[in-house]
Amino acid sequence: MGTYIGLLIAAIRGLLNSRQDLVLENLALRHQLAMCSRRPRVHGADRLLWVAFFRRWTGWRSALVVLKPDTVVRWHREGWRRYWRWKSGQERGGRRKIAQEARDLITRIARENPRWGAIRIRGELLALGHDVSAASVRRYRRQALLRPPSQRWHTFITNHRHHLWAVDFFTVPTLLFQTLYVFVVVSHDRRRIEYFNVTAHPTAAWVWQQVIEATSWGHQPRVLIRDRDRCYGGDFIARASRIGIETVLTPIHTPQANGVVERLIGTLRRECVDHIIPLNERHLRHVLREYVVYYNDTRPHRTLALEPPEGARTPQRSGPVVGTPVLGGLHHRYERKAA
Fold first, then answer.
1. Which of 9, 126, 242, 281 is the most exposed place for a label (fewest CB within 10 A)?
2. CA nearest to 268, candidates 288, 290, 282
3. pLDDT, tens only, 281-339
4. Rounded to an integer, what distance in angstroms lies between the CA atom of residue 203 and that of residue 191?
5. Could you count the other beta carbons within 10 Å of the beta carbon of residue 14?
């Protein structure tokens, strides 16, 4: 009797399982038809449905027409990874996050001090109240340094400006359409015009003679910045080195690398030579000589806290103000006369 009951239960279960498989197969086929009707494009809901078939129905492969079995298996594995990634994130485990301020400081310090190592930067962060490991510093420092460690051009100029001069040429047309070349030498420390001269034919010998005259009586720089103009001559660097001057050449087509003398040339044009028509070399030299005296002794400079290159003038509190014209009234020099 017990045996017959067991066979009956097995038969009923088989009928139920067959019914369930039939329903699932019908659902799977209908779903694939729906996918085809929308020009097969698999959505997230489609993936979830087939992952459910994969887990709950052993005969899912027999009803699969549009997709490959390996695709369904791959979706299941991807879902498993996402599930456990989400579950792990809920527990707040793993490495402690670094504060945004600390990350910004690592990036800033690494860029401003490209030769500092991770330990040095970590020491600075400890002094600023951020306890960050050296490994974390190395990771964010590596992201900040996109180029190999090297000092910036501004850093080089700042460290050498007390012993740094710059030279360059600019052109001025005469009344008879002759081109005159003006050679200027400026010091970086006080923006003082150390020397200038004018010629119609700038040769290597002439340029070197101007350097000798500009550095007479031992007044010379340690470093001289210039461009790569051929008029300096091929032996300029060697000759300058023999008298104790190191020559630094600016990169090609980068006038901003010699910005101090370029700014000076712009000032000379805007405030002087753009307002006159020189007759010849002698006339232009006379005009520039008068302006250079005004530039060095009187003209205020923003980079020098509105002081002239020769130093601050003594404030005068009493007496009438008298204006002295410069270059025929193009500029004026003001001072108080004693009563």
1. 242
2. 288
3. 999 999 999 999 999 998 888 888 888 999 887 877 777 888 888 898 888 888 878 76
4. 26
5. 10
| C-alpha closest to that of 272 among 256, 259, 289 | 289
- The Cα 211–Cα 220 span in angstroms is 9
User: Over the range 192-225, which residues count as b (16 or more CB within 10 Å of their CB) and which as e?
Assistant: bbbbbbbbeebeeeebbebbeebbeeeebbebbb
Mean pLDDT by 10 residues, the chain (339 residues): 45 54 69 64 66 64 63 68 71 67 83 78 83 84 62 69 91 94 95 96 95 90 93 93 93 89 95 94 96 92 87 79 87 80
- pLDDT, tens digit (0-9, with 9 covering 90-100), for 195-225: 999 999 999 999 999 999 999 888 899 999 9
3-state secondary structure (DSSP) of residue 333: strand
Fold for the domain defined by 156-312: Nucleotidyltransferase; domain 5 (3.30.420)
CB 287 within 8 A of CB 272: yes
Alpha helices in 98-152 (DSSP H): 100-112, 118-127, 134-144
Residues across the chain? 339
| CA 88 to chain CA centroid, nearest Å | 39
Please answer whether residues 170 and 269 qualify as being in contact, where contact means their C-beta atoms are separated by less than 8 angstroms.
yes
pTM of the model: 0.57
Look at residue 182 and give its three-state secondary structure. strand
Encoding tokens for residue 298? 């009187």
CA distance 45 to 137: 43
Rounded CA separation 137/107 (Å)? 9
Tokens standing for 105?
Answer: 């400081």
Tokens 């003209």, residue located: 299
